[in-house]
């Protein structure tokens, strides 16, 4: 969930989504070819080297020359997210490889990771001539089914949570909170791609835009753990959460999903871990961060598993490394639960700084090779 997330741990841990995107740190200057758009971000400007590009694979070569951490988005005209890259530090460069169809888009830079962003138009013309392995089409179909299954399974768990709130049962609501979030956290990049749902259901207090009313899970989390009360407002918010998530459930099947958006989504889920779960900022009142952490990793692993056969063909050494790092992170997470089949994890306020550093290092070790997955599947 997008929010104000830059902390010391974030900076160390952080290394984005529809139709598109693979992201990896830029190690050299991008060639100024037809498919490359150089994006220069400052605190006041978002300059792009091109306003028109041909359809197909496109690279955004991003350089942040400002003093603030920024985000760069590729957006449809209605603000749905085509691609994104968050936490681009001052003075750093990153490269995003996208796969886009003909149409009108916008590139937005968000200095400070806030607001609507400074925008530039981008027109994509013609048709892509790139051929795609039919196995990738099967992977997309299976991932679409997975995303829908997760949404369908989430609503009953959310109803358990919200029914407890409606009944004024604080203990039952606390117990149902973390389980209600698992399906959402597994497939969050798909939900975020719609643009309007995530701010309603998964925004933290420090992620609110000016004038935005705080609704959703984390507003209720604060009431249950910090305020320890359920009033009329909380019951209204619980009903709204069900309504908003039902909207998400109905819209999941309309999401534009491609092999690159799957790969990017996997990387984005690791970024979610680095910027929220490892830091303890995500579930700061309930300290159920490790449940969300595990769900993010599971979602990333599902996308990777579906794309793995193609990645194995194109970049076997990358697959070897990803298999190793996923296994290592899974093993590390298992240390924080007694039953590997359950989601009953240790409360995150009991996890020491040294242990958080160990988790952060494991996330970074996986995130770096995972950033190369999209490029591997479109070779």
Q: Keywords for this structure?
A:
5-stranded mixed β-sheet, single chain, disordered N terminus, 47% helix, 17% strand, globular, alpha+beta, 379 residues
Structure, described:
- This protein is α+β, with helices and mostly antiparallel strands and 379 residues long.
- The protein is built from 13 helices and 10 strands.
- It has helices at 8-13, 134-166, 170-177, 182-186, 188-192, 198-201, 217-227, 232-251, 259-277, 289-314, 316-334, 353-370, 373-377, and strands at 22-25, 36-41, 46-48, 52-54, 56-64, 70-75, 81-88, 93-100, 103-111, 118-125.
- It has a 5-stranded mixed sheet.
- A hairpin with a 6-residue loop joins strand 9 and strand 10.
- The radius of gyration is 20 Å and the shape is globular.
- The relative contact order is 0.14.
- The model is unreliable at 3-31 (pLDDT under 50).
Quick rundown:
47% of the residues lie in helices and 17% in strands. With 379 residues, it is of the alpha+beta class.
Radius of gyration: 20 Å
Number of helices: 13
* Overall mean pLDDT: 88
- What's the overall geometry? globular
Q: What's the arrangement of strands in the largest beta sheet? A: 1-8-5-2-3
Quote the distance from N terminus to C terminus: 30 Å
Task: Please indicate the percent range of residues in DSSP E strands (runs of 2 or more).
Answer: 15-25%
Q: Please describe the biggest sheet, giving its number of strands, its sense, and whether it closes into a barrel.
A: 5 strands, mixed
What is the string of SSEs from the N terminus onward? HEEEEEEEEEEHHHHHHHHHHHH
Fraction of helical residues: 40-55%
Helix/strand class? alpha+beta
Q: Outline the low-pLDDT stretches.
A: 3-31
